[in-house]
Design brief:
This protein is of the alpha+beta class. It has one domain (about 10-480): FAD/NAD(P)-binding domain (3-Layer(bba) Sandwich), CATH 3.50.50. It is about 35% helix and about 25% strand. The strands form three sheets. Strands 4, 5, 6, 12, 13, 14, 15, 16, 17 and 18 form a ten-stranded mixed beta sheet that branches. Strands 1, 2, 8, 9, 10, 11, 19 and 20 form an eight-stranded mixed beta sheet that branches. Helix 1 crosses helix 13. The relative contact order is 0.17. The model has no long low-confidence stretch (mean pLDDT about 95). Bound molecules: flavin-adenine dinucleotide. The site of flavin-adenine dinucleotide has 42 residues, from helix 1 and strand 9.
Length: about 500
Amino acid sequence: MAQDNQAHLDVLLVGAGIMSSTLATMLKELDPSLRLEIVEQMEDGAMESSNPWNNAGTGHAGLCELNYTPQAADGSIDIKKAININAMFEESKQFWAHLIETGTFGNPETFIHPVPHLSFVQGKDSIAFLEKRAELLKAHHAFEEMEFTTDKSRMAEWLPLMMAERTDNEEIAVTRVANGTDVNFGALTRQMLSYLAQHDSNTLSYKSKVVGLKRCAQGWEVSIKNLANGQHRTVTSRFVFLGAGGAALPLLQMSGIPEGKGYGGFPVSGQWLRCDNPAVVEQHQAKVYSLAAVGSPPMSVPHLDTRVIDGKKSLLFGPYAGFTTKFLKHGSFLDLPMSVRLGNIGPMLAVGRDNMDLTRYLISEVMQSMEQRLDSLRRFYPQLDPADWKLEIAGQRVQIIKKDAKKGGILQFGTELVSSADGSLAALLGASPGASVTVSIMLDLLKRCFPEQSASPQWQEKLSAIFPAPLKELETNAELYRSTQARSDQLLKLR
Ligand SMILES: Cc1cc2nc3c(=O)[nH]c(=O)nc-3n(C[C@H](O)[C@H](O)[C@H](O)COP(=O)(O)OP(=O)(O)OC[C@H]3O[C@@H](n4cnc5c(N)ncnc54)[C@H](O)[C@@H]3O)c2cc1C
């Protein structure tokens, strides 16, 4: 679509990561007549957190992440979050399966692969926790295929790389679900962007940065700078989505909506160890998650992962956290200081005061030598050869800081959708569980920001065709869950 200087749009999305591309694709499936533009400052989509090397590519479905099943002081284990995240991932799979069914979206094997998900623990207490957790989960239909074992010969079949030459007296246990996935969220994002580009009513503008945002009679007036030639243009749009990853916070502040007041951001950078040696990579076909060290945050859970990127297999281990003041990997060191406002300085200081453990954890992570990093990996893979592993920089996560009546401010590790009361603008803050649950986040956005259309018979009919099993049904209806999963898995070539 040609760009005029004062175009009027129905929908403008900032950022070409997994969030904006999913929302844009979903909206166009529901209403192909929408005039829509995605504005991205980089030269291509998925260059920040959605890039496959910047995230772990785990299709988070609660199959292996031990922090989704917390244990209370009385020993009880709460499995609600694991069930909910599992259902959200199945909702994502329904949407991707629908896109494959359109016939023009492309191949699922470019972005999703079956990779078993395992949890691995050491020591008596952790083994007791893992066994109890497996019993509870197996009673739910979403986890009925979960296997628990302390049998080392079984583990050697599942995890040859990790089990080679381990000492016999080591107390270890694992659970395994064969039906886990590795997702290349970057390839999926680019596939959605190409799919959108097939239609004239969509504009994808790269090397273009949103630099201004203000309310106007038509909704929002958005100023865009062309980074290639320095020229500015203005568009108006009925609805604006701030899918700018870590940079969504400053844009939310720029919008001035009252719902965005009081939010702050806490950036955490990450690093991985990566191995591309085929002789090593071929011995590990799994995503293996363990327990985070006591006192460390949920994103620090160590895991050894098979990755399938552009048809090649690699192993990733980590993440190791770090501190930076940038909100994006390609961002500016001024991002954090420039985000401080009168409205969020209180919550930010309160979080600094109450999270000394986190500060200590980050300092210890930053100070680690390569040898110390390799030692963490040796817990998983005792026989590693240092020459096989190199350090890579992961994406940025900006954790949410928000007001809290009791504490003044709290740090939140999940994602949060912030929208204006009139539904004309929404921003996605936070990082976890992230890309895996994008579809559920966007279904929530549709209800909040497109309430009339969402309730209309046209959208309802299309939504029920795309999502034969809604979220709550997936959690509670075993038969529907099994048949929907079987259908999605077949279309996505997972089984
Ligand atoms: C280390 C790490 C590991 C992770 N592991 C997993 C995992 O295993 N599984 C999982 O599901 N999720 C994981 N995540 C989370 C997941 O990667 C993110 O939730 C997801 O990629 C966020 O997508 P996004 O579209 O919001 O942001 P991004 O992919 O960061 O995209 C935002 C885009 O906005 C652009 N932009 C910003 N400001 C502007 C502007 N003013 N104008 C124009 N463009 C702009 C940026 O250039 C960027 O391209 C992980 C994240 C990290 C950092």
